[in-house]
């Protein structure tokens, strides 16, 4: 819809206000999927900061609240948004999931699925660098395995950091 062009004209604070006014963080998931389809068709593309705000407003609360696998609608919306705006998506959503304390089994599975199936190689490397910024845990090792399972070539500095981190932190992990 032509009305969505306003998203490209809003300042970050205006966009956050608009998202709050429209209650995008709590809209039904089938409408979320439709909204994401409209975002994919939007030209010009959203700015990085606008996409980051929308990633947070549309998905963060939903993903952090998962206690079971995401619905078909939510997963489709995540994949569609991620297909066009993967950098801001990873910086906002994946980073928040990785920083979350506790088990976070569904969130970890979701990140692994996105890594395995829809992230571009540079975003896979971004996810790995984000994992290596926080203390390793059993759940984060699953994300590392998903990244390595992609068999993408890692930049030498990222590979060195991975080896160093694994050698330093592996003794603290009990079941892996």
How many β strands by DSSP? 0
Question: Which percent range describes the beta-strand content?
Answer: under 5%
Q: Give the CATH class.
A: Mainly Alpha
On the 0-100 scale, what is the average pLDDT? 91
Written as H for each helix and E for each strand, in order along the chain, the element string is HHHHHHHHH
What would you say about this model in short?
The chain has helices at residues 12-22, 29-41, 48-64, 72-84, 86-99, 105-117, 121-131, 138-149, 156-169. With 176 residues, it is mainly alpha-helical. Helix 4 packs across helix 5 (86-99) and helix 5 (86-99) packs parallel to helix 7 (121-131).
What does this structure look like?
Residues 1-176 form the Fanconi Anaemia group E protein C-terminal domain. It comes from Oreotrochilus melanogaster. One of its GO terms (biological process) is interstrand cross-link repair. This is FANCE protein. The protein has one domain: Serine Threonine Protein Phosphatase 5, Tetratricopeptide repeat (Alpha Horseshoe), CATH 1.25.40. 67% of the residues lie in helices and 0% in strands. It is built from 9 helices and no strands. It is globular and about 55 Å long.
Task: Please tag this protein with its features.
about 180 residues, Serine Threonine Protein Phosphatase 5, Tetratricopeptide repeat, mainly alpha
What order do the helices and strands come in, and which of them pair?
Layout: H1 12-22, H2 29-41, H3 48-64, H4 72-84, H5 86-99, H6 105-117, H7 121-131, H8 138-149, H9 156-169
């Amino acid at each position: 819809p032509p009305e969505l062009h306003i998203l490209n004209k809003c300042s970050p604070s205006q966009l956050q206000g608009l998202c709050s006014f429209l209650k995008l963080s709590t809209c039904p998931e089938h409408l979320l999927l439709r909204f994401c389809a409209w975002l994919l068709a939007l030209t010009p593309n959203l700015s990085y900061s606008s996409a980051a705000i929308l990633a947070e407003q549309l998905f963060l609360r939903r993903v952090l609240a998962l206690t079971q696998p995401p619905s078909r609608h939510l997963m489709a919306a995540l994949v569609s948004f991620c297909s066009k705006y993967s950098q801001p998506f990873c910086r906002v959503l994946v980073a928040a999931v990785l920083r979350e304390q506790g088990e976070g089994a569904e969130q970890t599975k979701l990140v692994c699925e996105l890594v395995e199936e829809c992230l571009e190689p540079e975003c896979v490397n971004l996810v790995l660098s984000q994992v290596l910024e926080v203390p390793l845990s059993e759940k984060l090792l699953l994300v590392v395995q998903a990244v390595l399972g992609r068999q993408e070539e890692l930049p030498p500095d990222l590979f060195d950091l991975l080896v160093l981190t694994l050698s330093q932190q592996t003794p603290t992990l009990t079941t892996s």
